[in-house]
């Protein structure tokens, strides 16, 4: 794991926090994983002679931070490039230049951001600076270990009388049909129900209601991960999949242990606000 390498990088953090504190915003904390992603990008840009948030291969700041182990969903990045300047005074100049650029200033002063990693890399006369920001409203992962998990597949076939909803914990997990010939992977222990749609409303329906469609559950052991999670006070949602599909709700404060198959790809955690969910964390299951 990378850690702060120079006083210059920490000076960029200090100058950034000076700007935030002067405007009544919280100071950012140093984050090693954000720094690791920032350092890798700064070195890559200097080595290959480009200056951009997206690499020539198309990797975005969010993808680079996720590859470094950052699990937070809300992230941001500032870049700066200088040539022919001495190190002394560059941290202050970079922050002042970012403050004079609307997009960079928005990142630097975003209230939601809580942590920062900064890379300051020199190659001869050239200097590359990268700031990687992230929003960490809480730290959910207390423990993680490989584990044997159970994969659950829901196989649907036939013809439903209309759109069919698959509900977990009374929340819509997927809308399918009316023609059915597909499999859905479900998280373990989910309370499964079905609904038929009429107009804009869903009505719970027993399996096969309306005739012509069937559902079958299949389970098999598969490699996965055991997680110990901590939630502060509030209402939270858990979702799974490459894109979040709601699984279950959680009321904090609570510590929860779950074992999930790697085939689900990601576990999403988010705050529930009325009928909406603000996903804050994305935890790889492989």
From TrEMBL:
Q: Which SUPFAM superfamilies match?
A: PR-1-like
Query: Which InterPro entries does this one have?
Result: CAP_dom, CAP_sf
The record, for Gene3D superfamilies, names: CAP
- CDD domains cross-referenced by the UniProt entry: CAP_bacterial
Show where the SCP domain sits: 14-133
Identify the PANTHER family for this entry: SCP DOMAIN-CONTAINING PROTEIN
Instruction: Identify this protein by name.
Output: Uncharacterized protein, YkwD family
Organism (species)? Calidithermus terrae
């Amino acid at each position: 794991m990378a850690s702060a390498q120079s006083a210059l990088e920490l000076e960029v953090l200090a100058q950034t926090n000076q700007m935030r504190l002067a405007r009544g915003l919280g100071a950012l904390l140093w984050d090693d994983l954000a720094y690791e992603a920032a350092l890798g990008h700064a070195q890559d840009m200097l080595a290959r002679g480009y200056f951009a948030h997206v690499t020539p291969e198309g990797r975005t700041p969010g993808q680079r931070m996720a590859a470094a182990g950052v699990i937070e969903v809300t992230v941001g990045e500032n870049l700066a490039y200088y040539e022919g300047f001495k190190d002394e005074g560059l941290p202050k100049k970079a922050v002042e230049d970012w403050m004079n650029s609307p997009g960079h200033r928005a990142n630097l002063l975003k209230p939601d951001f809580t942590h920062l990693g900064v890379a300051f890399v020199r190659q001869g006369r050239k200097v590359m600076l990268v700031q990687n920001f992230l929003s960490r409203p809480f730290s959910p992962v207390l423990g993680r270990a490989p584990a044997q998990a159970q994969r659950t597949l829901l196989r649907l076939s036939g013809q439903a009388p209309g759109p069919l909803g698959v509900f977990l914990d009374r929340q819509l997990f997927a809308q399918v049909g009316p023609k059915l010939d597909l499999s859905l992977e479900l998280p373990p222990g989910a309370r499964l129900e079905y609904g038929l749609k009429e107009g804009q409303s869903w009505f719970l329906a027993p399996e096969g209601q309306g005739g012509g469609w069937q559902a079958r559950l299949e389970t098999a052991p598969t490699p996965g991960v055991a997680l110990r999670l901590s939630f502060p006070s509030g209402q939270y949602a858990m979702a799974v999949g490459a894109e979040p599909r709601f699984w279950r709700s959680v009321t904090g404060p609570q510590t929860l242990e779950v074992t999930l198959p790697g085939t689900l790809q990601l576990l999403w955690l988010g705050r529930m606000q009325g009928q909406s969910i603000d996903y804050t964390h994305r935890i790889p299951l492989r």
